Amino acid sequence: MPEGVIIREGSTDILVPELHSSGGPGKIQGGVFFNEQMAFNRDISVMLLRALGKDLTVCDAMTATGSRAVRIANEVKGTTVTANDYSTDAIPFIEANIEMNHLQNCHASNKNLNVLLNQESFDYVDLDPFGSPAPFIQSAIAGCRKNGLLAITATDTAPLAGAHAPKCRRRYQSEPVRGFMCHEGGLRILMCSIARELAKFDRGMRPLLSFYADHYFRTYIQIEEGAAKADSMLQKLGYMEYNMETMERSLSECYDHIHKLGPFWLGPLHDQEFIKKMNPAGMAAEKRCTKYLNLWSNELDSEVFVYDMSELSSHIKMSPPKLLDFLELLNTNGRATPTHISPTSFKTDLPLEEIVSLYKECSPDSH
Ligand SMILES: C[S@@+](CC[C@H](N)C(=O)[O-])C[C@H]1O[C@@H](n2cnc3c(N)ncnc32)[C@H](O)[C@@H]1O
Questions:
Q1: Cβ(255) to ligand 1 under 6 A?
Q2: Which residue's CA lies nearest to atom 6 of ligand 1?
Q3: How far is CA 329 from CA 317, 322, 342, 343, 358, in A?
């Protein structure tokens, strides 16, 4: 057994290097990567796969210590799990974790995922790289069975959210949006790039759950088979215009000199009925899971545009009302919800003019 410390996550014991990340983007500290803060991310996989309620072959293609793989094998009934990492240092941790949890339904694999996923296929393929998943998406699709599920993390937040636009153009062939919509924009660029890869294989997609949290983006994609599904998926990609001077936002199907941001995935982020089946009881970050499940299943996820109270207050130059009071007023005129992306942001189906006028009405300065 390699040297390390045992931590308990959910109902699983995991041996990890003594030196490991406990927050932030995380980096390799003890030879093999482990980040305690990603317990929430692993919880989501467990809850989501449980909610599917069927037998599944699972490939955790970049498993490091095997943490996600053993949690799935131990906590989701009916799974057969391949815990893969190309690092030879990772294998003793993966094997120890399988043994420690007495798992018959999990085995270690020491391959480059590009090889593994071209040799074998699975119902669920998980990519959790350092930085961008872009170089691995084709392999993940190739290794995903008919109507399978892809789970993809991206920690290259700076390019996707517009702080490093040239890298976003290279990795994702998209023009990122900056300012208050940057994280929603980054998530939708990641989803768009997955859609464009799927289309090459005559496959479409239906997102089950997609989010931004801490320092990363994550999306769970239900693959839908056939050219017709691919064509209708491509209809949901498009461009947008965002004028930071006027706060105006608009969509466009094509690229021209004005509509120069994107392309983005413009469809919904989630299947909200499905999210309602996910149960946070017993998860490592149960309280946080409960909070996010509630946000995800209620947000206006089909609305692409995000507004932020700081943006409105700095443009309108009136003190902001409390977000909940403002949302209540917006909801008497249309629909509005908080977003999971930021505690000060919201989405609504009302036009900008009306948002501004209701903001003025609700601001404490007007009372
Ligand atoms: C961010 S870590 C994964 C963390 C892990 N999923 C967890 O929850 O703790 C990324 C891992 O991917 C592995 N990796 C990178 N490129 C790979 C490839 N082409 N094939 C297989 N594994 C790879 C690295 O060795 C590293 O352990």
A1: no
A2: 63
A3: 19, 11, 20, 18, 7
